[in-house]
EndoU domain-containing protein (Penstemon smallii), 405 residues
Amino acid sequence: MEGLVKGLINVALDHIEGGRDDDADQRDERSRSTWAQVVSAEPENHGGPSFKANHGHRTEEEQRYQRNDEERTRIKPHKEEDEGNDGWQTVQKKPSKLKHKVHKDQWDNYKRPLDEQEYSSEVDSRANVEPSEEELADLSKALNKLWELDFNRLTPGRDYEIDCGEGKKVYQRDDMAEGCLFSWLSEEVFERPTYARFCSLLDNYNPHEGYKEVVTPQERQEEAAFIEEISRTAPIIYLHKYLSAKGIVSENYQEFKRMLTNLWFDLYGRGGTSSSSSAFEHVFVGEIKQRGEQAVSGFHNWIQFYLEEAKGRVDYQGYIFPRRRGNVPDSETQLLTIQFEWNGVLKSVSSTLVGVSPEFEIAIYTLCFYLGGEDNHVEIGPYPINIKCYRLGNKIGSAFPVADS
């Protein structure tokens, strides 16, 4: 009888949805992870409060999918078992197919003074970084050009493999993934300069939304070094030429780099506290909303997802059914809409571009911030995408891709 009742409820919910789905190879043996250092470091203790519920609103994405169905069950955050863990909890993680490991030996070099840093050479000579008149007149064409210029983008099956598991509706809370999202990743990925410098930034933040950030001189140095590194890549050089042709930024490249640093790393208020967030933290690292029911906010980067999954902090729970029937994601898909828990707190729907480089994401979101609107319906590579871009004054409040129907 219980099973029958549950089945009738699910049928009724599907009827409420109007019959619509919610938005949303062979391995190269040489590419499997055999890295020297397992990522197992505990999160830095910034003295922040333990997770607790207050009152507030849902994330932008959850608002898009939420229906008037208060009867839907919601998963509750797990109780803390260790009062001395700075609000973090150990997630009982399902077994991965392969240990996630990251080679971090070269990261010590990033702690040197800026004038002692070693950067990669200038942009690849094969890159045509001059925007055409057609691209200057069409944001979608410009974003697609950035996809073509992303020489650092990874190739599914060669550089990594994912297992999407089974699909689900946004409101469903059953775990539809037996293992991790990432099965393996090439050992050389985090030796790439922009990837490695990006990773060095991820532990600079307190995940509690509304908790004031304290930025050290070394962290400022890491931010400047990251911007310097990506500024030598084709997507960022193209971005500069595009924005300067539009009269938005100076033709002086040093001034442009300062603009990028300010746009992505300057602190602003979120959750009622000043200097508690930044565009980089929200979009790439993620935050835990403390107002109302706890929820993960932001967190749209696949590298951060991979690393947190490696540490057992992320529990991947399946992909969200796409609106287009038959368009089911597989190991080759690079635009994913998924559900997961981060430190026991639910992200009911999230979207990310898998395998793209840090410089590519910085470029597309910056371009949309300056020349797009809140919705930017474009085509990037093989994917029709709506790049959502929310503003907080003159800063990026949030930016992420959504699969267009």
